[in-house]
Amino acid sequence: MKILYNVTVKIDTQVHSEWLDWMKTVHIPEVMATQCFESYKLTRIHGDDDEHGVGFAVQYIATDIEIFNQYQEKYAQNLQKDHADRYQGKYAVFRTLMQIESEG
Question: Domain total for the chain?
Answer without folding.
Answer: 1
